[in-house]
Give the backbone structure.
Amino acid sequence: MDSLRKVKSQYPIQEPLFPRKRSRENLDRFIPNRESMDIGYANSVLTERRTGKENLVESSASSVAYQKLLAETFNMNRRILTFKNKPPAPIEPIPRALLSPTNCKAKSKLRRHISQTAERVLDAPELSDDFYLNLLDWGSNNILAIALGSTVYLWDASNSSTSELVTVADEDGPVTSISWAPDGQHIAVGLNNSCVELWDSISVKLLRKLRGHHERVGSLAWNKNILTTGARDGNIFNNDVRVRSHTVQTYLGHQQEVCGLKWSSSGQQLASGGNDNLVFIWDRSAASPNAQWLHRLQDHTAAVKALAWCPFQANLLASGGGGGDDTIKFWNSHTGSCLNSVDTGSQVCALLWNSHERELLSSHGFTQNQLILWKYPSMVRMTELVGHTERVLYMTQSPDGCTVASAGDETLRFWNVFGIPEVAKPAPKESPMPFSPRYYCIR
């Protein structure tokens, strides 16, 4: 304090030398309410300011008395500025809450940990090493089905129990494809003898057989009560499992074995891939029994088995080419245009989208036999999962979309690659299909 006093005493004339402008010298004024303002008095005051009379300190007694009498006579004691309401509170350009140290930096989303090793490994003896088959599927009831040779096994993920569904006869087998119905109770089994069997997994009973193909059925896909089947004969059938004459529509386009089938989430478009290196997109609304394709995509240079519809962009389809092609391509299903093509360096066997993040998982064959997690749309490799010693031909994911199961080299491996979502939404329950004992007989 003493030092401050000394400084002030040494410079006593500093402040007068730099007089601050008084607010009254600023002639700009704010008049919010002219009705309650005395215009005459205000004009008089402003006129005095312009002539410099606001600096007068002393006035004669007669002049003061005259001004007082004049003000009382003309009611001039009112204020120049009057407010009916309180002035609005000042608006803060940056809220104080955001200036706190915890909010100064954007909170970045924590990167989840992706384990490089499988959480569980199960033996899968007699698992076929055939690129064109589809022998693994995880149903909505949290039961995983896998075909080993001529036998279909069911593995319950809730208690890790294993049971046998069916072992087909040698002349009918081996099993070439399996697919769970949306209800999680019924399962379709494609066979080497060109037949498709429909089973009830709870009662473990064969409900009916679907015939029509001439060679093995290697691909299956459900669309509510419609079971779509693709075979080595190049034909694709839509089978309505509720009626006796089950073949209701045929898609003709592939010249070789159909090894990939996927319905879009809306159920309006079907994607098919074949050993003829082609991808077809079919429109469900076509009324003709022999429907014409919507798009014929021929950019791949090898067989196309891996197909996956994007869960967050309805018209986006991903496809993967086999050995010699090694690419993942992205298609606009409305226009048929190729949006992007990524060289993976190895045979693409299966594709799965992450339902919680913009990510795509691919499984591969020659030469790395690995799983690759890609960030979409940049297609940057996020991680690679290594463990299989042979081609990872089959891949499926759990109903909650978090766990991925992959099969190859006679092993079944489970990966927590997609992580646990912040808010896990339960999978919508499909109403049971109206199975009729009259039509669901073995034929």
The chain has two domains: 32-53+67-80, 120-415. Helices lie at 2-10, 14-17, 39-50, 61-73. The chain has a mean pLDDT of 82.
